[in-house]
Amino acid sequence: MLEIPWGLKDILPDEFEKRIYLKNKIRKLFSLWGYRELTTPTFEYFSVLSIGVGKELKAQMIKFIDRDGHIMALRPEFTTAIGRIITTKFKTAYPPFRFFYLDNVFKYPREKGGDKREIFQTGVEFIGEKGIRADAEVIALLSTFLTNIGVKNYKIIVGSIPLFKALLEEFNVDDATFELLKHSLSIRDFVGFYNILDELPKEKRKRLRTIFSMVGDKDILDEISSIVKNDKTQEALGELKALYNIMKYYGVEESLEFDFSFLRDIDYYTGIVFELFVEGVGYPFAGGGRYDNLLPKMGLDLPATGFALELGRLLDVLDDDSFPKRKPLSLVLAPFDYERYGIEFAQKKRSEGEVVCVKISNMDKDEAIGYALERGIEKIYIINSSSRIDIIDIKGD
């Protein structure tokens, strides 16, 4: 049985070359913003990777027991592992730290029938910097990268956990109901969310339904300011307004869309949260936000923000024009008597930057053309002697 496990895939040359191109673009751009690349072990102790992530992600982890009886897990994301690195390898260094990664993560799909257990991912972690300016930096970096590689018609949906908490506090929603509402939104269970809201008194229900249905640009921030009253709510709104204004300095404010019902499904998020959507596609390509409570759980009191971007999904929406054209392939054909000259000629062409393969054979011209056509070869160099070379341009023939 020559099959691979479900949820995994072979990466063939065409896709692999596109991946290399994206990696090179990422390394160049992220480095220009001061981020340095690292990676983490493919698997670690389940107990470490579980810190702060919540039951949803724990259930998605791919676990196994090593021969010493320890429960291990393949990394389902990078943030927790990088938090471990900061608290163990950079404990005495001076923050902030800017890191990025380019590697695979592994987890079971949230829904049955999902087709991926190995995910090609990049992302950044900006650790040790408080405030909205750090959040704006990572969102602007994401938007700049998307623009640079030719992604069109995308939106970065922004929500706020402090705003969500302040709104429910303003309307005197009890803690148990708050947790139920938060969980429903984080897993996109809007039916359950509104069913819970419907159990609240009529006036609260009506106003909260209005607020949580609001989605749009900066104008809705002003609109909601006229609805809510308490200081915490206004402070959280002020943070979103500041985010928008800073994004204007980066020139990417048009990519933002605010959604007051948007939360993320990992427990460690504490502030601004966001996800990337491309027009016509119903699932997010990237997500992130502020997670100030994760590193303190590991013993180091540092704030942090960042994002993760699924590059495999990105490849699905980029057309071929987004990638450089492959160099044409040439063939050096030499009979057995002139093998040395054929190889030496091919080496010379390679040193000049031409993509060349060698075939040592006594096939005639017609056979050589047929061979080239079947393999996408565009030019043939036929070595007839140490000094005579015939050139056949297949595309021009």
Description of the structure:
The protein has two domains: 13-322, 2-Layer Sandwich (BirA Bifunctional Protein, domain 2); 329-393, Rossmann fold. It has 397 residues and is α+β, with helices and mostly antiparallel strands. The chain has helices at residues 13-32, 46-49, 54-60, 79-89, 132-148, 161-170, 175-186, 190-197, 202-212, 219-225, 231-250, 294-297, 311-317, 339-351, 365-375; strands at 36-37, 43-45, 63-65, 71-74, 97-106, 118-127, 154-160, 215-216, 256-259, 272-278, 286-290, 304-310, 329-334, 355-360, 377-383, 389-393. A hairpin with a 5-residue loop joins strand 15 and strand 16 (389-393). It contains 15 helices and 16 strands.
Notable traits:
397 residues; alpha+beta; BirA Bifunctional Protein, domain 2; Rossmann fold; 2 domains; 9-stranded mixed beta sheet; 4-stranded mixed beta sheet; 15 helices
Rg measurement, Å? 27 Å
Number of helices: 15
How many strands in all?
Answer: 16
Largest sheet: 9 strands, mixed
And the CATH topology of the largest domain? BirA Bifunctional Protein, domain 2
Q: Stretches where pLDDT falls below 50 for ≥5 residues?
A: none
Overall structural class, as computed from helix and strand content, comes to alpha+beta
* CATH-level-4 superfamily name of the largest domain: Bira Bifunctional Protein, Domain 2
Query: What is the number of independent domains?
Result: 2
Our measurement of the CA-to-CA distance between the termini, rounded to an integer number of angstroms, reads: 44 Å
CATH class of the largest domain: Alpha Beta
Q: Helicity level, as a percent range?
A: 40-55%
